[in-house]
Amino acid sequence: MATDPSKRPGPEQVAIFLMSIGEGPAAEVLKHMGPKEVQKIGTAMASLERVSRTDIDYVLKRFSETAMEHTSLGIGAEDYVRSVLNSALGEDKASGLIDRILLGRNSKGLEALKWLDPRAIAEMIRHEHPQIVAIVLSHLDADQAAETLSYLPDRMQSDIVLRIATLDGVQPAALHELDEILERQLSGKNTAKSSMVGGVKTAADILNFMDASQSTNVMSGVTQVDEDLGERIQELMFVFESLVDVDDRGIQTLLREISTDSLVLALKGADDALKDKIFKNMSKRAAEMLREDLEAKGPVRLSDVEGAQKEILAVARRLSESGDIVLGGAGGEQMV
Questions:
Q1: Which domain holds residue 298?
Q2: Are residues 212 and 101 part of one domain?
Q3: Do 63 and 150 fall into the same domain?
Q4: pLDDT of the residue at 334
Q5: Rounded average pLDDT per 10-residue block, the chain, 336 residues
Q6: Chain-centroid distance, C-alpha 1
Q7: Residue 18: CA count within 13 A, CB half-sphere
Q8: Is residue 27 in some structural domain?
Q9: For the CA atoms of the chain, what is the radius of gyration?
Q10: Do 161 and 264 share a domain, yes or no?
Q11: Has residue 335 been placed in a domain?
């Protein structure tokens, strides 16, 4: 039975389109995509089977309809993007997103780094000023940045994470310095005015992708320099929803250490996947009682929910430090 073309995943539809327009045009299109997009589409191309005429017609028609919706209006596009996103999200939320969009459009050197192996990136930047290293890592995806950081000398890692966490914006002079480095190394250039990069969340994301022992060492160094900042990073490294990645035995251990009242309050703000994880690790009767308590609780203040979640996370971290449970996540230590 033929597959409905509209049900094919996005990468497969793109792969069909590119294979339909020929090798030359397809190569030109791929030049404008990021490494992860190219990898997804390349994988889809390699695995395509039984592409029918109906599939091709559907994809080409969809492309034609989408192209017709666009015009050549481009005058003042940068100001328009800023205005629309500021109106939609507010200046605080939109500022970082705007700068990343506009910077990404013009920063060929920084984008080129995303195609490199993390070890190669580390070799390229290891002798640069730590502030430059922090800016570079802030522009990479968290997993790539984490691996790159792991290849840098141990003595540098805590300092770099501190700088990432405290980055509040990049001045033109700093970007100019970065531009010169990348121009020498990659023959790239950077014409962006400024960018909002880094911050506590960026530092936490990078640490989440590091090996557990490396992450612990880095956090120890950060906390020695700035205890408050270390706590803020720690809070974002493992959030309440991350409990869904803890194994069943760990959840059962955690449940023995927390009160029912705290659990009910915390779960009021949890998604279904985490609730199901909790229910699954309780007796049938206990799970039924918890469901009844949740339904009977009624509306609660968000601050109370967040407080209960932080209380449970504190218990989870204590159990993790004592080795009783293993917190999940991309950087979790491998078990043998």
A1: 238-321
A2: yes
A3: no
A4: 42
A5: 71 83 79 77 78 79 68 51 61 55 52 77 84 85 88 89 82 63 57 54 78 76 86 78 87 92 89 91 92 87 86 85 71 42
A6: 38
A7: 23
A8: yes
A9: 24
A10: no
A11: no
Same domain, 180 and 274: no
Residue 244 carries which side chain, given as an amino acid letter? Answer: V
The verdict on residue 222 lying in a domain is: no
Helices 302-321, 227-237: crossing angle, 10 deg rounding: 100
What is the distance, to the nearest Å, from the Cα of residue 52 to the centroid of all Cα atoms in its chain? 36
Q: Rounded to the nearest 5 degrees, what angle is found at the Cα of 310, between the Cα atoms of 305 and 315? A: 130
CA distance 260 to 279: 13
Are 100 and 208 contained in the same domain? Answer: yes
Which CATH number do you get for residue 270? 1.10.220.30
Determine the pLDDT at residue 255. Answer: 93
Query: Domain tally for the chain?
Result: 3
- d(C-alpha 317, C-alpha 235), whole Å: 10
Residue type, 261: D
Q: Domain check: are 101 and 172 in the same one?
A: yes
Letter for the amino acid at 49? Answer: E
Indicate if 269 and 180 belong to the same structural domain.
Answer: no
Q: Residue 196 corresponds to which tokens in the numbers above?
A: 């909002």
8 A C-beta contact, residue 107 and residue 170: no
Q: 294 and 252: one domain?
A: yes
Three-state secondary structure along the chain? CCCCHHHCCHHHHHHHHHHHHCHHHHHHHHCCCCHHHHHHHHHHHHHCCCCCHHHHHHHHHHHHHHHHCCCCCCCCHHHHHHHHHHHHHCHHHHHHHHHHHHHHHHCHHHHHHCCCCHHHHHHHHCCCCHHHHHHHHHHCCHHHHHHHHHHCCHHHHHHHHHHHHHCCCECHHHHHHHHHHHHHHHCCCCCCCCECCCCHHHHHHHHHCCCHHHHHHHHHHHHHHCHHHHHHHHHHHCCHHHHHHCCHHHHHHHHCCCCHHHHHHHHCCCCHHHHHHHHHCCCHHHHHHHHHHHHHHCCCCHHHHHHHHHHHHHHHHHHHHCCCCCCCCCCCCCCC
In a domain, 76, yes or no: no
